[in-house]
């Protein structure tokens, strides 16, 4: 458990005890003091945490044999609440196990980055305060969990996502060292530095870009986003940033239809149920040849699999074999141009996706 989460639990339980004691020994109205403390303590701990936490160096002391990034805590289990959502919250573990059956090489296990590092990479303090409150988190994850204490959601949901976000940043470091890396989670493309949405809380793609710029001094970064949904979060963060070149293929009839964010896209193709595997691969190949310039220094590949046939949210019809060809094509282009590439799993909400993801990753790394 993170120190922050421990303190959060301490204050939550403390508030409840204060309210009960005041109710018993003073009067009913005095309980409100406990409730008041419950509502304002996040301001106190956020202020202290932001003040005391410092930016850290991002280093990898034990270089893994294979640049796959995975931590068992990526998987979300919240006493069954996660089952209300169509998202397969344990797909990371299932993909990892599938890979481990054939590849025994040691992978990389990320640690949580410090708050100071997230702030240095651009996270909004105001947004971080807002996600202390379950009423606000409910609007981002599309679950009616506003009645739960914020700390409950932090422990069982947000900390997993924050660890996966840290994994994406470490993945960028590994990709620079090894030429490629795959984080078996991340790709929260609807989150920006000051706003979440669509089950995305932390803007790992933006944070990776900012890491590459601030820590590694890179100036030309490409995001290839092939998830079925528009990557409106990071697009909003890079609306006026010419150093980030965004290629985004998505179904423009579905969420989020963010017209403002669209302005950041340099290459867009609409895909939907009528797009066949052959058409998709042909368009992708042509656009990568045209848009992937030789002076690009890094590729962030958001490899969502919700374009697969049958996905209730993506509403596209690409087959599992189409996914394999797509991933192979992107990696081939990156290798051909000698550009480091970081792959993030992003969306893909059916249980069947897991096998397709595992098979595709295995073909990339064997
Ligand atoms: Zn998606």
From TrEMBL:
The keyword Transmembrane applies. GO terms for molecular function: histone deacetylase activity; hydrolase activity. GO terms for biological process: epigenetic regulation of gene expression. Keywords: Hydrolase, Membrane, Transmembrane, Transmembrane helix. The keyword Thylakoid does not apply. One of its GO terms (cellular component) is histone deacetylase complex. Residues 153-355 form the Histone deacetylase domain. The chain crosses the membrane at residues 7-26, 32-52, 135-153. This is Histone deacetylase domain-containing protein. It comes from Paramecium pentaurelia.
